[in-house]
């Protein structure tokens, strides 16, 4: 049974002891207030602005264990406290809570304070980054900050190595390059010309600037992906463009999460054609033969991949698609037929006609794809692309192209054959 205050003035007495100089009485008061629980929160928040430094530091430890948005907001405010000891204790408390995502801006500001606040703020960011990938941005910026203390930047690198090893390698390489550049002696030639303005950032430097965003994207797409993380991942992928290709490729080949796959498909649509098109076709094969994701989401993902292929319009994609249609039996044929409609090209007509001549299923979807292709390319049964086909494929294709006309025509005898 919880212990409650037995008299009206007990909470006031406990708060007075919490702000006193006696450490033993402070600890006893904190333990008692913790047992009182939520009823102590409102009086504690009212008392906090007038509390002594030691009282505010003790209150930070108490707020660590009191749930709720009010306690979290109070800790965020204590993170801005003039006392470094209070701010450091508030950062420790935030690192121990499971709802500290809202403290990200305050924790990043705390990285610029005097020791020991930055170390505790860094620990809090590392703890939050496991669930909130946005925290990787401040950590990466701290590692690459030339004004940060050497020990602090290396501590940030250590956090990155634990959370995002690939991006940490790029950060470490950049750190070494900057140290080498700083250690290089300046030119001392007599009569040397004035120094020229700094050159534009090299592609390597530009890519390094995106390391934090790449790390955040990779973390955001770890399964399971929440809708909020998916929205953030879409924003990052759009901002990174082609630089997100490696992450998108990994997700497309391995992830089972529908939201992660959706982001990967959209990211691949922004990547260079030669790299993205084969990966999208590989994903279509995965959607057909693996349980990725659940059945009800596959059609939407396949349609999204088809639209991405259509936007890319890659000749390489057409070549790859032709090769896949010629495999017997074709892998993921229904999904490949969707790709045919997204990439209408006359070169796809022959493999489609060969599939129909071989009597492969799904026959109706094959005929529908052939008709869509012919309509889009304005082909008829007399077009050269049709008449130049071998006999069996040509016959199968002509029957597929003529069948819809028979259904729409005026009444005929059911025994009549379609026109040749």
Helix/strand layout:
Blueprint: H1 10-18, H2 23-36, H3 41-47, H4 53-63, H5 69-78, H6 84-96, H7 104-110, H8 117-129, H9 136-143, H10 150-163, H11 165-183, H12 203-209, H13 211-220, H14 227-240, H15 245-254, H16 258-269, H17 273-289, H18 295-312, H19 315-325, H20 333-342, H21 349-357, H22 363-377, H23 384-387, H24 391-408
Helix pairs in contact: 1-2, 2-4, 4-6, 5-6, 6-8, 7-8, 8-10, 9-10, 9-13, 10-11, 11-13, 13-14, 14-16, 15-16, 15-17, 16-18, 17-18, 17-19, 17-20, 18-20, 20-22, 21-22, 21-24
SSE topology string: HHHHHHHHHHHHHHHHHHHHHHHH
* Coarse morphology: elongated
Question: How many DSSP E strands?
Answer: 0
Largest sheet: none
- Count helical runs: 24
Q: Nearest-angstrom radius of gyration?
A: 32 Å
In the predicted model, the low-confidence regions spanning at least 5 consecutive residues are 1-8, 197-208, 404-420
Distance between the terminal alpha carbons, to the nearest Å?
91 Å
Describe this structure in words.
The chain is mainly alpha-helical. Among the domains are: 100-180 and 207-220; 221-335, no CATH class; 344-410. The chain is built from 24 helices and no strands. The chain has helices at 10-18, 23-36, 41-47, 53-63, 69-78, 84-96, 104-110, 117-129, 136-143, 150-163, 165-183, 203-209, 211-220, 227-240, 245-254, 258-269, 273-289, 295-312, 315-325, 333-342, 349-357, 363-377, 384-387, 391-408. Mean pLDDT is 77; it is low at 1-8, 197-208 and 404-420.
């Amino acid at each position: 049974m919880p212990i409650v205050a037995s008299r009206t003035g007990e909470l006031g007495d406990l708060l007075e002891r919490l702000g006193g100089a006696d450490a033993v009485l402070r600890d006893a008061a904190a333990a008692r207030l913790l047992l009182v629980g939520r009823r102590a929160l409102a009086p504690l928040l009212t008392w906090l602005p007038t509390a002594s430094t030691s009282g505010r530091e003790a209150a930070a430890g108490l707020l660590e264990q009191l749930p709720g948005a009010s306690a979290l907001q109070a800790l965020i405010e204590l993170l801005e406290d003039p006392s470094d000891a209070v701010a450091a204790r508030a950062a420790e408390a935030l690192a121990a809570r499971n709802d500290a995502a809202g403290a990200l801006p305050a924790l990043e500001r705390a990285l610029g304070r005097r020791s020991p606040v930055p170390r505790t703020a860094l620990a809090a960011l590392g703890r939050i980054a496991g669930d909130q990938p946005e925290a990787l941005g401040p950590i990466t910026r701290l590692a690459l900050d030339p004004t940060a203390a050497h020990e602090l930047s290396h501590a940030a690198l250590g956090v990155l190595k634990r959370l995002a090893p690939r991006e940490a390698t790029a950060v470490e390489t950049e750190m070494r390059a900057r140290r080498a550049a700083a250690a290089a002696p300046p030119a001392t030639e007599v009569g040397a010309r004035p120094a020229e303005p700094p050159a534009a950032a090299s592609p390597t430097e530009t890519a390094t600037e995106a390391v934090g965003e790449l790390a955040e994207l990779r973390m955001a797409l770890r399964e399971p992906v929440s809708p909020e993380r998916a929205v953030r991942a879409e924003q990052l992928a759009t901002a990174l463009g082609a630089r997100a290709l490696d992450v998108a490729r990994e997700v497309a080949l391995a992830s089972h999460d529908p939201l992660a796959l959706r982001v990967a498909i959209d990211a691949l649509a922004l990547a260079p054609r030669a790299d993205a098109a084969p990966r999208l076709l590989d994903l279509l094969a995965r959607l057909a033969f693996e349980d990725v994701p659940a059945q009800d989401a596959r059609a939407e993902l396949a349609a999204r991949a088809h639209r991405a292929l259509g936007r890319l319009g890659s000749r390489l994609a057409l070549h790859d698609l032709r090769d896949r249609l010629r495999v017997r039996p074709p892998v993921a044929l229904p999904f490949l037929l969707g790709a045919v409609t997204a990439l209408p090209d006359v070169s796809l007509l022959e493999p489609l006609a060969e599939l129909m001549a071989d009597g492969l299923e799904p026959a109706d979807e094959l005929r529908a794809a052939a008709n869509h292709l012919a309509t889009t390319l304005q082909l008829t049964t007399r077009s050269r692309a049709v008449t130049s086909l071998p006999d069996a494929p040509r016959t199968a294709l002509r029957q597929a192209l003529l069948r819809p006309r028979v259904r729409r025509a005026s009444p005929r005898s059911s025994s009549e054959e379609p026109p040749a």
